Amino acid sequence: MRILLLEDEPKISRFLARGLGEEGHRVQVTEDIDHARRALTDAAFDLWIVDRMLPDGDGLTLVRERRKAGDRTPALCLTARDRVEERVEGLIGGADDYLVKPFAFDELLARIAALARRAGGGERLVVGDLEIDPGAHRAWRGGQDLKLTAQEFRLLRYLAENAGRVLSRTRLLEHVWDTHHDPGTNVVDVYVGYLRGKVDKGFERPLLHTVRGVGYVLEAAER
Ligand code: CA
């Protein structure tokens, strides 16, 4: 998911950006409401994580503002305040969930997964006997957990979202690695190799197919 993180404490934002990045999310960090507002006009995000006490005000101001404009992007509010009435205020203010600092990273991940599911982004993808849960960042084949790394998961998810369509290396680089130039390496082929080792190994029918001179396709039918 593309996540906008609005947090002015560098220690927290660095920690969260790194942890969420390792989970396969793309995080843009902004330190005040003004910058976050500009980031929102430049790009679309799947989730906002918003601190309340910021140099230029309360992060909820921005959430309220966007809700008024009809934007329903899920928002998770972070705060050091833990009084019940402020929690209620947070939810009334348009945030979808609330996390009190300090919190455990696993708790944050669980909340994010729940919000993604509620937003519909967590709908499961199914290709043959392969099942992917985007919210939980997990995939199974024949009911068995594939235990993918974050990057393998992103690649598999993108292939599954385009199941039956042949995807070129360039397109995979753009969408999965977010790079618009050829890194001059065979990173795509290497990762498809890793995925094969997990998705297809031990199964009679492969799901990942190479289309010579074109790219790769994920498909349940034989090719
Ligand atoms: Ca703060």
Strand content: 15-25%
- The tally of structural domains comes to 2
Task: Trace the largest sheet across and list its strands.
Answer: 2-1-3-6-7
User: What compounds sit in this structure?
Assistant: calcium ion
Order of helices and strands: EHEHEEEHEHEHEEEEHEHHEE
Number of helices: 8
CATH class term of the largest domain: Alpha Beta
- Helical content stands at 25-40%
CATH architecture of the largest domain: 3-Layer(aba) Sandwich
Protein model, in words:
- The mean pLDDT is 88.
- The protein has 2 domains: 2-119, Response regulator (Rossmann fold); 125-218, Arc Repressor Mutant, subunit A, CATH 1.10.10.
- It has helices spanning 10-22, 33-42, 59-68, 84-92, 105-118, 150-161, 169-176, 187-199; strands at 2-6, 26-30, 47-51, 53-54, 57-58, 75-79, 97-100, 125-127, 130-133, 138-141, 144-145, 167-168, 208-211, 215-218.
- Helix 6 (150-161) packs across helix 8 (187-199).
- With 223 residues, the chain is α/β, with parallel strands linked by helices.
- It is built from 8 helices and 14 strands.
- It has a 5-stranded parallel β-sheet, sandwiched between helices. Strands 8-9-10-11 form a 4-stranded antiparallel β-sheet, with helices on one face. A 3-stranded antiparallel β-sheet has the order 12-14-13.
- The two termini are 31 Å apart.
- A hairpin with a 3-residue loop joins strand 13 (208-211) and strand 14.
- The protein is 40% helix and 23% strand.
- Bound molecules: calcium ion.
- The site of calcium ion has 5 residues, from strand 4.
